[in-house]
Amino acid sequence: MGIDGVYSVVASGPAGGSAGVISISNGQIIGNDTSAARYGGTASREPDGSVKLNVTMMTPPGVFHIWSGTTGETFQTRSIQLTVPGDAFDNGKAVEVPSYSMVVVFRQIPADFGVFAGEQGISTQINNLQAAAQAWASHAEG
Question: How far is 56 from 37, CA to CA, in rounded Å?
């Protein structure tokens, strides 16, 4: 079974949680999350069905890190290499990431959501949130 597709990614750490979208195409990962972190790297299906990930995450200044509860004054980059069971991508089985004291869940979602993983993903999220805030404000006035 291949690994290409669009996935929601939900992570829970000792200092909070995060949600994002990644797209895997020809083994290349791109993605964004709700804290404006960007993801890149590679993913490959191993002969035993497991998935080998090599992921780099870059966070902008001021982002609250769910594994530590701290923020950075500058852009920060974190890289991780891990192999997860195939069930993590095939069936949404939660995966523990001990080096960050986190649990991560991957779920394949419709390709239309890939816009949130791409280069304009963060801007798209912001625009959607601004539109929702305006709708709620209008609703409260009505």
Answer: 10
* pLDDT tens-digit map of 101-131: 999 999 999 999 999 999 999 999 999 999 9
Residue 46 buriedness (CB in 10 A; 0-12 / 13-18 / 19+): exposed
Q: Report strand pairing: 76-84 vs 38-45.
A: unpaired
* pTM tops 0.70: yes
- Cα–Cα dist 73/110, whole Å: 36
Cα(99)–Cα(82) distance, integer angstroms: 10
CB atoms within 10 A of CB 130: 10
The pLDDT tens digits of the residues spanning 38-74 come to 999 999 999 999 999 999 999 999 888 787 877 888 9
